[in-house]
C-alpha cells in the first residue's frame, strides 16, 4: 500500500541537555537538588520515580556538571575492591542507574571509597533505598543518611509541554485539540512523547496529511499495534 506507514521507532538517543528539560511541580524539587550539588549533606543522593518520569534526564544533567562516570548497578557485579578503588580514584562522581540492582557489598565499598575521596554518588532507581530489600546493615544505614528525592510521572500540563516542545523542535504545526487528544490517550512518559511526535512527523510527510486529531488517532493505534 502506497500510504502504509513504516514506523521509524529507531529514534536517535535523547540529548538529555539541560535546555531540553521541562520543569514542572513533579520534578522541581529533584532539579533543585541537582542544582545544589556539590553542596549535598551526604556523599550520595538517591533519585527515584517510575519509568518515564525524567529521572534519567536529571541524572545526565548532573553527570555533565559533575563529570561523572555513568554506569548501571549491574556493572558492579563481580567487581573486586581493587577494581572499585581504581574506579573511585579515576573520577570525582559516579552516576549509578538501576542502583537497586547493584550488589550490596560492591555498592557499600563504592560509597565508602567515594566518601573517603570527597566524591559523590547519584543513585537512580524506581524506589527509594528505604524500600530496597537491603540485607547489609552498614549499607542500609549509609543510604538512610543520604537524601532521597522522588520524581513524579508527567501530569497533563507537563506532558503537553513536552509534546509541544517536540513538535517545535521538528518545526511541526499541530491542529486544534491534537495535543490535548494525545495527552488523554498516550502513555504518560517523555520517551513516549518523543516516539509519538516522530511517528506523527513521519506519517504526515509520507501521506501528505495535516497533523490533526484523526492523524493522531491513527498514529496512536499504529504504535499500540507495534508494541
Automatic annotation (TrEMBL):
<dbReference type="InterPro" id="IPR027417">
    <property type="entry name" value="P-loop_NTPase"/>
</dbReference>
<protein>
    <recommendedName>
        <fullName>DNA replication protein</fullName>
    </recommendedName>
</protein>
Amino acid at each position: 500500500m502506497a500510504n502504509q506507514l513504516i514506523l521509524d521507532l529507531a529514534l536517535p538517543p535523547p540529548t538529555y541537555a539541560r535546555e531540553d528539560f521541562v520543569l514542572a511541580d513533579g520534578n522541581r524539587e529533584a532539579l533543585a537538588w541537582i542544582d545544589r550539588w556539590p553542596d549535598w549533606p551526604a556523599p550520595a543522593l538517591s533519585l527515584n520515580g517510575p519509568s518515564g518520569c525524567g529521572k534519567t534526564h536529571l541524572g545526565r544533567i548532573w553527570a555533565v556538571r559533575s563529570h561523572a562516570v555513568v554506569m548501571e548497578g549491574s556493572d558492579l557485579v563481580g567487581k573486586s575492591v581493587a577494581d572499585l578503588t581504581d574506579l573511585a580514584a579515576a573520577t570525582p562522581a559516579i552516576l549509578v542507574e538501576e542502583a537497586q540492582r547493584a550488589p550490596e557489598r560492591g555498592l557499600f565499598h563504592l560509597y565508602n571509597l567515594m566518601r573517603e575521596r570527597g566524591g559523590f554518588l547519584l543513585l537512580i532507581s524506581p524506589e527509594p533505598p528505604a524500600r530496597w530489600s537491603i540485607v547489609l546493615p552498614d549499607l542500609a544505614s549509609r543510604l538512610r543518611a543520604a537524601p532521597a528525592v522522588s520524581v513524579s510521572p508527567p501530569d497533563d500540563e507537563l506532558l503537553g509541554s513536552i509534546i509541544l516542545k517536540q513538535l517545535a523542535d521538528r518545526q511541526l504545526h499541530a491542529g486544534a485539540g491534537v495535543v490535548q487528544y494525545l495527552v488523554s490517550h498516550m502513555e504518560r512518559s517523555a520517551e513516549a512523547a518523543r516516539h509519538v511526535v516522530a511517528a506523527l512527523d513521519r506519517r504526515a510527510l509520507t501521506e501528505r496529511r495535516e497533523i490533526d486529531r484523526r492523524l493522531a488517532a491513527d498514529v496512536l493505534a499504529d504504535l499500540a499495534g507495534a508494541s
